[in-house]
Amino acid sequence: MSRLFVESTGVYCSIQDFGRFGYKKLGVPESGVMDRVHAGIANLILRNNFYDPLIELAFGGLKIRSQGKTLISVTGPIDFVWVNGKKVSSFTVIHLEDNDTLSIPYFSVGVYTYLAVIGGIHTEEVLGSCSQTKHITKKERVFKGDVFEVKESDRIINLGAKVKKNQNYFSEGFIEVYKGPDYQEGLIDISNYFKISNKSNRQAYLLHSNSGNIDFKEILTSSVMPGTVQLTKSGQLNVLMRDSQTTGGYPRVFQLTEESIGRLAQRRPGGKVKFRVLD
Amino acid sequence: MLSDYFDIKIKRFGSRAILLEWPDLISENTLFEIKTVEHLIKGDFNDEIIDTVETYNSLTVFPDVNKHSLDVWIKRITSLALRSESFIDSKLSKVWQVPVCYDEEFGIDLKQMSISLKIPIEEIVELHSMPEYLVYFIGFLPGFLYLGGLDERLYYPRKSIPRAKIAKGSIAIGGRQTGIYPNVSPAGWSIIGRSPVNFFEIGQSQPTFAVSGDKVKFIPVSKKGYDCIHSEVVSRKYIIKHE
Known about the structure:
heterodimer, A: mainly beta, Cyclophilin, six-stranded antiparallel beta sheet, elongated, B: alpha+beta, Gyrase A, domain 2, four-stranded antiparallel beta sheet, 14 strands
């Protein structure tokens, strides 16, 4: 076994796989990676399973030290990481030797970076998932001083090519939505841009418009899921993300496509997004 | 067809869920219809159903969309027929006896409620611990029970500014509802007591003891009684009683 020691976690860092299923009726959130595309690519670069547990990092600032050899990959909005102070490309296999220090820099576009390790990072599995979630797993995120046991490997993996990063994914494109169960014609104008609030997190992204207050009939508490767009009376939209509650009382006006959940997740607070309604 | 038997609408909900909606009201009848349909769907499609979520007037079904497209699933579910074995025996429902200490040390809003409602604290406790509350569903937080049956004399508005943090096991009233916070959490409801029991316990085969359709009866206990049960809960000796 090799080990990874967490020396600094940056803004927010957690272990995630593709989520926890089968326990929604007990109020257990789904959780799982915010951006499945980039988490999946990080795993595929190492020939892991697409959905193996890995480290999800918001905004950079992670520093880890290795004990023993292992193979990792980093994907997301960044083009490079530092290994012992030397620039190394992301989106390809990175060999860590004993006592190497890897640090993921802060960056200016995009939000979530993924660090996968060959064989996956298998922490405490609770209710069928390693995703760290408040009230479910003992630790709700990664902390400084955490140690992960990982597969020892110096096997050369040759994919033949480095995966190409699509920079547009992190800054451009519509957020595609279906009409939600409580959609009503004329309730909210979504032809304008919405601004992402800095209160956004893994549970929900809050979007401000200048529509002013909106009056609508209250609904009985009903089911919600990642990607559900709730309308509030102040005209703010709550887009529920992976750590979403299972039920909620605001009208569900839209539902993001699975792909758009990942795309929205990568948009920064302060940035603007525009919706496109699918039939 | 399911709609031959029940007053329901069946809708797509995004790309991986189907929403079955009953008329917009809270009733015990609807609850048992929802449970019957859930039982029917799980009975027929068993391991092809990933998740279900019940609420007051809806059932959301997450089928395995890798096996069949969502459109096919809607057809499969819409065309289900009711059979005699689909019905759930409501006699199987349990009445859970949940100990609650209504001491003012825990019931931090009791005094204020008593003044606003003009009801003495002892009477609030009596009115709150009298009914058998029906568990409609679990949601909001892992193990949070949505209970129906609060005496209307205890209806009490939600706080305009929620508390940032309340204790695990807090018993609260918000609007026309009462509930138990299964864990430390922010709360907009007024706190009237605390239960020493665990409402969501990882590691148990069933993390929550109650299921929708069960009932909950609050049993007032003294501070001493609370401490005693709490230490039994901590040492895993406590078994919650039910009828």
